[in-house]
Design a protein that fits this description.
Elements: E1 2-9, H1 13-22, E2 29-34, E3 36-37, E4 44-45, E5 55-62, H2 64-80, E6 86-92
Antiparallel strand pairs: 1-5, 1-6, 2-5, 3-4
């Protein structure tokens, strides 16, 4: 199984939820009001007057075949509005209860 963490501008919230639903990812944890700054082109997301946008994050454990489809969906979301920002990180989930 694989662990995926998706960090995204709150503006993508509905689209990310739709991608999770489309891939039938039922179990996940979501964090709201996540602050950060893009590593390349992205603007800061601090929730302040100067940088008012804010991020959200989702973590899920998925089967490898689901991961491929989910990453494709997320890449499409990010391509539609790169400056808003969306990143996904994947690593091995050795065990789960």
């Amino acid at each position: 199984m694989k662990s995926i963490m998706i960090i995204y501008n709150q503006a993508h919230s509905t689209l990310v939820q739709q991608a999770l639903d489309k891939c039938d990812v039922r179990g996940f944890t979501k964090w709201v009001d996540v602050q950060g700054r893009g590593s390349d082109k992205g603007e800061p997301h601090y929730g302040t007057h100067a940088w008012p946008s804010i991020n959200m994050a989702v973590m899920a454990i998925v089967e490898p075949e689901i991961l491929t489809i989910l990453l494709s969906e997320l890449k499409e979301i990010n391509s539609s509005a790169e400056k808003q920002g969306l990143r996904a990180f994947v690593w091995e989930a050795e065990s789960a209860i």
